[in-house]
């Protein structure tokens, strides 16, 4: 169901775990009216990548041009080139087609990460919008965390210091930040980890705040689908009734015309 979400760094794979985490809210239906439950179940069964439109067009249908790795971000471009190098003897024409195919593959592999950066289409359900919003929020938090950690790890010099246990001289790093600032940065990292846990757990499941937001969005989405279905049913009923009225009117008009043509039986 989910991929690695260990909060060790801000990698893209972890974010896919947030975006593709679905189906874990089916046990709580207290806030959803009975007539909306079938729509809630329908939403939970949707694949958040394949069944939900994003803001970045996916490849499909006829492609008028061959895709080039040069237009990809550095990490994705490097992956395409790495795979191309595995086939050094491929003819030039076949190599161009293969490169286009590889571009498609790496983009599809990164769709979860891309979704966490770009969000979903404006026509997506509130459930999937909230899901993507949480992914984007977690991604931003990890980006901040990485910045604090990078500053903490930055060493500007190395000095010799005596090991109190052995008395030997050992290398001791001189950090870029003072100890006071380092402690403040550690506190910031701890706070970010707390915020992340409220949104999503290490296994990709939603945290307390994330679950609350997703349950609310699920109820809104189920109500929206129910309303849309009712509106559709009303439109169909109106069309059917309009056809019936038109038919009845036509029959009445024809019957009146026929009656006028017949002699009056009372005369």
Describe the structure.
By secondary structure, the chain is mostly helical. The chain has a domain at 12-55 and 119-231. The protein is built from eight helices and two strands; from the N terminus they run ααααααββαα. A two-stranded antiparallel sheet has the order 1-2. Helix 1 (12-19) packs across helix 5 (111-118) and helix 6 packs antiparallel against helix 7. The radius of gyration is 31 Å and the shape is elongated. Mean pLDDT is 83; it is low at 1-17.
Essential attributes:
267 residues; mainly alpha; two-stranded antiparallel sheet; 8 helices; 6% strand; elongated
What integer value in Å does the Rg equal?
31 Å
Distance between the termini: 86 Å
Task: Return the string of H and E elements.
Answer: HHHHHHEEHH
Helical percentage: 55-70%
List segments where confidence is low: pLDDT < 50 over at least 5 consecutive residues.
1-17
How large is the count of helical segments? 8
Give the strand line-up of the largest sheet: 1-2
Percent strand: 5-15%
Would you tell me the structural class of the helices and strands?
mainly alpha
Q: How many strand segments?
A: 2
Mean pLDDT: 83
**3D shape:** elongated
Main sheet properties: 2 strands, antiparallel
């Amino acid at each position: 169901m989910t991929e690695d979400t260990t909060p060790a760094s801000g990698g893209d794979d972890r974010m896919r775990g947030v975006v593709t985490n679905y189906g874990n809210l089916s046990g709580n239906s207290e806030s959803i009216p009975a007539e909306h439950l079938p729509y809630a179940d329908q939403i939970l069964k949707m694949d958040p990548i394949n069944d939900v439109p994003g803001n970045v067009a996916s490849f499909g249908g006829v492609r008028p041009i061959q895709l080039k790795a040069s237009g990809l971000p550095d990490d994705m471009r490097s992956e395409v080139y790495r795979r191309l190098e595995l086939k050094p003897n491929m003819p030039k024409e076949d190599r161009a087609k293969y490169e286009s195919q590889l571009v498609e593959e790496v983009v599809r592999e990164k769709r979860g990460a891309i979704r966490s950066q770009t969000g979903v289409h404006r026509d997506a359900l509130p459930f999937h919008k909230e899901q993507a919003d949480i992914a984007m929020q977690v991604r931003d938090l990890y980006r901040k965390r990485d910045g604090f950690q990078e500053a903490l790890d930055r060493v500007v010099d190395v000095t010799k210091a005596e090991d109190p246990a052995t008395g030997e001289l050992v290398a001791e790093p001189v950090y870029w930040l003072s100890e006071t600032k380092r402690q403040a940065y550690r506190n910031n990292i701890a706070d970010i980890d707390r915020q992340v846990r409220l949104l999503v757990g290490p296994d990709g499941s939603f945290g307390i705040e994330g679950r609350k937001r997703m349950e609310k969005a699920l109820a809104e989405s189920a109500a929206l689908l129910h309303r849309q279905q009712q509106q559709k049913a009303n439109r169909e009923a109106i069309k059917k009734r309009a056809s019936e009225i038109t038919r009845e009117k036509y029959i009445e008009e024809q019957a009146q015309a026929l009656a006028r043509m017949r002699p009056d039986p009372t005369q």
